[in-house]
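Q: Okay, next protein. This is Dihydroorotate dehydrogenase from Ignicoccus islandicus DSM 13165. I've checked the sequence twice, so it should be correct. Can you predict the 3D structure?
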Amino acid sequence: MIIISTLPNREDAKKIARTLVEKRLVACAWVLGEIQSFYIWKDQLQEDEETVLVLKVPKEKASEAINELRNLHPYEVPEIIAVEADYVLPEYLKWAKEVCEK
């Protein structure tokens, strides 16, 4: 599974990525560059710089990873989107499962 979230800054994203990998809830985490987000919050147009966090996790660990991400996330209502991958190289999936089983 791929879990995508946005964070207010790179340091928050790195902290959450490191924690989830150290706890073996995700096999790998990407902290991508800053993006410009536009959205409505409490009836006001918002424009913010955010950092994208991408997590790669075996399906069996997804719920636990999402729960921990939610607990660590600083936003009141965080963006947490999970999608199932259509294809994963079998050797990569094997590695990811081994990492998250320990």
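A: Here is a summary of the prediction. The chain is about 35% helix and 35% strand. The longest strand covers residues 28-41.
Q: Noted. On to the next one.
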